[in-house]
From TrEMBL:
Source species, domain of life: Bacteria
GO terms for MF: 3'-tRNA processing endoribonuclease activity
Source organism per UniProt: Candidatus Cryptobacteroides merdavium
Signal sequence region: none
Protein name: MBL fold metallo-hydrolase
A Pfam family hit: Anti-Pycsar_Apyc1
InterPro entries tied to this protein: RibonucZ/Hydroxyglut_hydro (IPR036866)
Length: 72
């Protein structure tokens, strides 16, 4: 059994300037779950840096409806 991985895509708060808003991927052998999406289209750049294709994300979980978690 493979241990799931947590891949951090962003660790910043709502007004970050140098790192992306909080979001991460939980990955196991057969699926990827995106937790939050950050605050804008920077999520695409973060996914590219992590070598993750958008089409490989199977599910998404939003922790709450603040713009720095849902606009990505």
């Amino acid at each position: 059994m493979e241990t799931p991985q947590i891949i951090m895509l962003g660790t910043g708060n709502a007004v970050v300037t140098r790192c992306y808003n909080t979001c991460f991927i939980i990955k196991d052998r057969s699926s990827m779950l995106l937790v939050d999406a950050g605050g804008g289209n920077g999520i695409l750049q973060q996914l590219e840096k992590a070598d993750i294709r958008l089409g490989d994300i199977h599910d998404m979980f939003i922790t709450h409806a603040h713009t720095d978690h849902i606009l990505g």
